[in-house]
């Protein structure tokens, strides 16, 4: 039986992916690494330090920095990112999300957030959505990033529901993998061709339908 929804943040609830992109791009340019939107796709759902590693690899510079220097680079990117997301308001909630959250609550189901972002609390507050969530997983306590299922399993544990009673909603390939490995029902947002492993795919957040997800889950 369907009992809970567990949401990703970036790319599902709001489009912070664009701000992550701009902040990484500025850092990459400083390092003389060319960074495109296409490469940015590979960073979705990936932690800050792992994202930095990937960018350094794209530029063939992964050997050039000490651990300390890498931390400084990641901090610099984050400061820029935080500056960019300061402008976020409830008008940045992606279409269809407020209705979906309302429909879930109306059906008396639980809602949790499973975001890899250390800025998730700040973003939810800026969107004025924090009250809609029963639990927000503290990512600093999570050892393994997506595609590992840990963050989704933690959310189910906090909600005290069995993973098999949960729907996970994601926009990243690593995220969908994490949901499936957690033994949950995976709803993906994005192009159908990217998400063979998902149980249900919606091209946009606007198309998300509580009724349809519930019916398909119960089939
Ligand atoms: P931060 P999600 C993820 O959030 C983003 O998709 C990913 O691009 C980002 O690097 C990661 O959070 C860490 O974010 O630097 O703010 O801690 O999609 O899991 O909500
Ligand atoms: Mg995401």
TrEMBL record:
Keyword list, A-Z: Carbohydrate metabolism, Isomerase, Magnesium, Metal-binding, Phosphoprotein
Gene3D superfamilies attached to this UniProt entry: HAD superfamily/HAD-like, Putative phosphatase, domain 2
Entries under Pfam families matching the protein: Hydrolase
Signal peptide bounds: none
Top-level EC class: isomerase
CDD domains from the UniProt entry: HAD_BPGM (cd02598)
Gene name tied to this protein: pgmB
PANTHER family: 6-PHOSPHOGLUCONATE PHOSPHATASE, HEXITOL PHOSPHATASE B
Enzyme Commission code(s) on record: 5.4.2.6
Name of the molecule in the record: Beta-phosphoglucomutase
Molecular function GO labels: beta-phosphoglucomutase activity
Cofactor names: Mg(2+)
Species for this entry: Metabacillus endolithicus
